[in-house]
Specification:
Layout: E1 17-19, E2 24-28, H1 38-41, H2 45-57, H3 61-74, H4 79-99, H5 101-109, H6 112-129, H7 138-152, H8 156-162, H9 168-182, H10 189-204, H11 212-228, E3 235-237, H12 239-249, E4 252-255, E5 258-263, E6 266-272, H13 277-280, E7 288-292, E8 295-296, H14 302-309, E9 316-322, E10 332-337, E11 339-342, E12 346-357, E13 363-373, H15 380-393, E14 398-402, H16 411-421, E15 424-431, E16 442-447, E17 464-468, H17 475-485, E18 490-493, E19 501-508, E20 518-528, E21 544-545, H18 549-571
Parallel strand pairs: 13-14, 14-17, 17-18, 18-21
Antiparallel strand pairs: 1-2, 2-19, 3-20, 4-11, 5-6, 7-8, 7-9, 9-10, 12-13, 15-16, 15-20, 19-20
Helix pairs in contact: 2-3, 3-4, 6-10, 6-11, 7-11, 10-11, 16-17
Length: 574
C-alpha cells in the first residue's frame, strides 16, 4: 500500500554518511508516501484513470500521485502512466516547497548571483553522480528547468506569492517566450547559467518594481527542475524537509511517537513507539485521531497531521481520540507533551510454538521467534542483534522475519543485516560510477566463513521464513532477495515493490544555505539481485504467494515445520 514516493510520518529517508569524492553522502533506500485509499484500490483501471484525471484538474496532486501509483503497481511497464505519475509528483513538490516557511525565508536571503552559482553547482553535481548520464547533460537539465517553471506558473500558491499583479494575458505572453527558450541550444553549464539569468530578469519585468526575490525564485525553479525530472526518487530537499531528514537519520524526532495512516478518510494510529509520550498517554494501535489542537483531521494528509504533531520539546498537543475498542464511539480528550522520540526500527517476540510427534512417538515443542524490521536506520543492526539474543534466550528454534510494509531505509544497514544471516554469498550488485566505497559498490558479498561462534551464533543459522508484500521495498528488497537467492530462507507473501535504485542525500549547506541547509536526494546506483536480475519494476517473487495475512502466517509456519522435520531427519542416525 505505501508505494508513492512522497513524505511519510516518520520520514523514513534514512541514511549514513560516507565519503565518495563528491562530499558527504547520505546513502538512502526508501519510499516516501501513503497508499491510495482502499476504495480506490477496488476500482478498475479505467475508473482509476478517470479519477486521476479529475484530481489533476482540481490540482489535488497528492491524490493523483496515489492513483497513478496504484495503476503503475498493476501495469509497471506503462511508460505513459509513469510519465503522468512523475508530472504529478513534480507539481506536488512545487506546492510543498512553497509551503515550506524555511524555504521561503532562504529565498529572501539568497541574492540572484548566489542563486545562479548554486544552480551551476547543482548542474555539476547531478552530472557527476547521477546514475544515467544521458539525462544529466546541461541541455537536458536546462530543458527540465523550463518545464518546472512552466508548471510552477500554473500553481496559485506560486503566482499569488511572487507575481500577484500579473494578468492572464501577461502569463500567456511569458509562456510563449518560454516555448522560444525551449528551442535554444545549450552547450555547457555557463550557457545554461546565462540563459536562466535572462529568463529570470524577463520574469521580473512581469511585475512593477522588479524585486530581486523574483529573479531568485525563478533560478531556484530551474534548480529544482534539474533534480525533480530525473526520476521519481530524485528531488530537491527544501530546508524544512532536509532538517527533518537529518533528524530521522538516527531515528530521533521531537513529536509524540506514533506512525499514522489514512484509512477510508480517517486518520488512524498505525504504530505507537515504546517509551514515547503517546505510549505514556495510553494511545493504542488503530485509535482514530479526530482533531489535533482543535483542527479536524478529516481532510488532513498524513504529512500535514505529522507536522501538527511535531513541535518544540516540552510543548503540548491536544488530541481528540476515538479508541479502537470504543463501542459507542465516545471521543477521548488527551493532552500530550512533545519530547525527543527514538523511533525503534525493530520489534520482536515469541509466537505460538510448534508441537509435533517425532518418529519415536515422543512429542517435541519448538519455540517460534518473530522479528519485524519496520525500516533500516543507523541503529537497526544492533537492534536486530539484541532482538535475536533475547529470542534465543527465550528458546527460539525457528525464526519468522517480517519485512512487510518495510519501505527501505539505510542501504549499509540492510547489507549488515544480510551479513548476519549469510555465512557467504552475493548480497547485491550495485552498478554505479559515483560510489567509490567497495563495500557499497560492485558485487557486494557476505564472507563470514571464518567467523567464530560468538560472531555467528546458532540463532543466525536456524530455519527462517521471510514475510514480504507489495510495500516491501528498496533496502528491504535487497535483504529479501539476498536471503532468497542464496537459499537461506523461504519467502511468503506477495511480490515486493520493485525499486532497484540507490539514493543519497547531498547537503547544500555552504555557503548559500549555511543557516538553513537544503539538499538533493539523488539516484546514484542501480541494484541487481545476486542472480543478476534487476529489482526495478519486478521486485522479489515469493516462494508462496498469498494476499491474506492469516494465510501468509499459516504458510510461513508450514514452511518452517517442513524445515524442522528435514533438520531432524538429517540429525537422526541411519
Amino acid at each position: 500500500m505505501m508505494r508513492c514516493p512522497l513524505a511519510t510520518t516518520t520520514l523514513r529517508s534514512l541514511g549514513q554518511r560516507i565519503g565518495v569524492g563528491v562530499g558527504s553522502l547520505v546513502l538512502l533506500l526508501g519510499l516516501l508516501i501513503r497508499p491510495a485509499s482502499v476504495a480506490a484500490q477496488a476500482l478498475n483501471n479505467e475508473e482509476l484513470l478517470k479519477q486521476a484525471a479529475a484530481c489533476e484538474k482540481r490540482h489535488d496532486w497528492r491524490e493523483a500521485c496515489c492513483l497513478y501509483d496504484e495503476l503503475l503497481h498493476r501495469r509497471r511497464d506503462d511508460a505513459r502512466l509513469r510519465q503522468a505519475y512523475q508530472r504529478c509528483l513534480r507539481c506536488y513538490r512545487i506546492v510543498q516547497r512553497h509551503q515550506d516557511k524555511l524555504y521561503r525565508t532562504a529565498l529572501e536571503r539568497l541574492t540572484p548571483a548566489q542563486a545562479l552559482d548554486l544552480y551551476v553547482h547543482v548542474l555539476e553535481t547531478v552530472d557527476r553522480v547521477y546514475t544515467d548520464r544521458q539525462k544529466s547533460s546541461p541541455a537536458a537539465l536546462f530543458a527540465q528547468g523550463l518545464e518546472e517553471l512552466r508548471l510552477a506558473f500554473e500553481e496559485p500558491i506560486f503566482t499569488h506569492e511572487y507575481f500577484p499583479t500579473v494578468t492572464q494575458e501577461q502569463l500567456r505572453s511569458f509562456r510563449k517566450k518560454l516555448d522560444e527558450w525551449q528551442q535554444r541550444k545549450i552547450a555547457n553549464r555557463s550557457e545554461a547559467r546565462e540563459q536562466v539569468g535572462v529568463i529570470g530578469r524577463t520574469a521580473q519585468q512581469l511585475c512593477s518594481g522588479g524585486q530581486p526575490i523574483r529573479l531568485t525564485v525563478i533560478v531556484l525553479e530551474f534548480l529544482c527542475g534539474a533534480c525533480n525530472a530525473l526520476d521519481e526518487f530524485t528531488f530537491f530537499l527544501t530546508p524544512g524537509h532536509y532538517r527533518e531528514v537529518q533528524a530521522a537519520l538516527r531515528g530521533r524526532l521531537v513529536s509524540i511517537g506514533v506512525d499514522l495512516e489514512v484509512i477510508d478518510e480517517q486518520l488512524v494510529i498505525r504504530r505507537v513507539y515504546p517509551s514515547s509520550p503517546a505510549k505514556d498517554a495510553g494511545l493504542k494501535l488503530y485509535d482514530r485521531i479526530v482533531r489535533i489542537d482543535g483542527q479536524s483531521t478529516r481532510e488532513l494528509t498524513v504529512e500535514r497531521a505529522a507536522e501538527l504533531l511535531r513541535g518544540k520539546a516540552g510543548t503540548f498537543v491536544r488530541l481528540e481520540i476515538i479508541p479502537f475498542d470504543s463501542v459507542d464511539l465516545e471521543i477521548k480528550f488527551v493532552a500530550i507533551k512533545r519530547a525527543p522520540v527514538v523511533a525503534p526500527s525493530v520489534e520482536y517476540g515469541m509466537d505460538e510454538p510448534f508441537e509435533f510427534e517425532l518418529d519415536n512417538g515422543m512429542k517435541a515443542v519448538f519455540p517460534v521467534g518473530r522479528l519485524t524490521i519496520h525500516y533500516f536506520q543507523e541503529s537497526t543492526l544492533q537492534e536486530v542483534k539484541d532482538a535475536l539474543a533475547t529470542l534465543q534466550l527465550a528458546g527460539m528454534k525457528v525464526l519468522i522475519l517480517d519485512l512487510r510494509r518495510n519501505p527501505g531505509g539505510l542501504f549499509r544497514s540492510a547489507i549488515e543485516v544480510a551479513e548476519l544471516f549469510l555465512p557467504e554469498g552475493i548480497i547485491v550488485i550495485s552498478q554505479t560510477h559515483a560510489i567509490k566505497d567497495r563495500k557499497l559498490s560492485g558485487i557486494i558479498r557476505a564472507d563470514r566463513r571464518d567467523a567464530g561462534p560468538s560472531e555467528h551464533p546458532e540463532a543466525l543459522l536456524m530455519p527462517m521464513v521471510v514475510l514480504i508484500d507489495g510495500e516491501t521495498a528498496s533496502a528491504a528488497e535487497v535483504l529479501a532477495g539476498a536471503l532468497k537467492d542464496n537459499g537461506r530462507a523461504r519467502l511468503v507473501g506477495q511480490p515486493t515493490f520493485g525499486k532497484g535504485t540507490l539514493q543519497c542525500v547531498l547537503p547544500l549547506d555552504k555557503p548559500y544555505f549555511e543557516r538553513m541547509p537544503a539538499g538533493i536526494r539523488i539516484t546514484v546506483a542501480k541494484l541487481l539481485s545476486p542472480h543478476w536480475q534487476p529489482y526495478s519494476g519486478k521486485g522479489v517473487e515469493p516462494h508462496f504467494r498469498s494476499f491474506d495475512s492469516n494465510d501468509i502466517l499459516l504458510e510461513a509456519r508450514q514452511f518452517l515445520l517442513q524445515e524442522l522435520r528435514r533438520s531432524l531427519q538429517a540429525m537422526s542416525p541411519d
